[in-house]
Write a structure and sequence with these properties.
By secondary structure, this protein is of the alpha+beta class. The protein contains 10 helices and 9 strands.
């Protein structure tokens, strides 16, 4: 199998695809395909890595990283969107291995302030339910991050904002994808690791793997080349980024806060595939088993 990782400065930022390897990898043909893909999509820039059996067969940047015209390279950091959730799940797995939590424990054992409108229901939500999107929290609830307490910030504020939501199903019974699950998990990581979520990912994953062009939300150095996000506006890509002086909103960092270069992401994907002991603990099989969700998932 050949694994293809793709960053695109438009729409869905990250895709991971596996394709059958029908012989030797043809770099020239692949380059032509990617160039046409970028042209057809109208994407200003993109980066690609091709992996096979632990080796990077090809890695390259295409186009520009933003309005300043800087070229995309394999070290340009892109917003990874919901790929962030895989980092969160891996840290949860590490913490379970360390005895800091049990996947089958209710969340309230570690975060007693967590509740939804029906506390008796939310008290039955386990950590595993959050990781696998079986908590009963809805997609809609996960797309809002209403802070109800001005003294709270970051993931804690988003968790407090769940106090009035209604679960759509009993915990553990039904799949529904929700950012709220991973907002809550990121808060759990901060509580049990006694450090900010950003630092937890840095010390537990980025540093062990040498992911020097990866970070959560705010780049630690001006030396890191960061791609500007783009959005479609009346069919044309337009750059989008927060106001320069705006305070970073940390509430949703566990759902989509990681930025990484294609070079770093290839390193991460290979480490997970190979169960690299630097980041993947022994007995990690449970979270690597895909649970069937419905006809479109699993």
């Amino acid at each position: 199998m050949i694994g293809v990782l793709l960053f695109v400065l438009l729409g869905q930022q990250v895709m991971a695809v596996q394709q059958d390897a029908g012989g030797d990898f043809d770099v020239t043909a692949f380059d032509a395909t990617v160039a046409k893909m970028r042209e057809d999509a109208g994407a200003p820039g993109m980066a690609v890595a091709v992996l096979r059996n632990g080796q990077t067969l090809h890695a390259k940047g295409y186009g520009i990283a933003g309005p300043d015209g800087q070229l995309v390279t394999t070290q340009t950091a892109f917003q990874t969107g919901s790929i962030t959730k895989s980092f969160v799940a891996l840290v949860i797995l590490q913490m379970a291995s360390e005895g800091k939590l049990d996947l089958d424990d209710p969340v309230v054992r570690y975060v007693p302030t967590f509740r939804t409108a029906d506390k008796s229901q939310s008290d039955r939500i386990t950590i595993d339910h959050l990781v696998t999107h079986h908590s009963g929290l809805t997609t809609l609830d996960g797309n809002s991050a209403n802070a109800v307490d001005p003294s709270l910030s970051g993931p804690a504020a988003a968790v407090a904002g769940l106090a009035d939501v209604q679960l759509f199903a009993e915990p553990g019974t039904t799949f529904q994808y929700s950012n709220a699950n991973y907002v809550l998990l990121s808060h759990l990581i901060e509580v049990l690791d006694d450090q900010p979520f950003e630092q937890a990912l840095k010390t537990r994953i980025f540093e062990p793997l040498g992911m020097t062009n990866s970070f959560v939300q705010v780049p630690p150095s001006d030396a890191i080349a960061v791609a500007t996000g783009y959005r479609l506006w009346f069919g044309a890509p337009r750059p989008w980024q927060p106001e320069p002086d705006a305070e970073p909103d940390r509430r949703m960092i566990g759902a989509g806060g990681v930025s990484a270069s294609i070079e770093d992401l290839a390193r991460y994907v290979e480490a997970v595939r190979a169960r690299d002991p630097r980041i993947v603990p022994e007995g990690a099989g449970r979270l690597f088993v895909i649970k069937p969700f419905n006809e479109q998932w699993g």
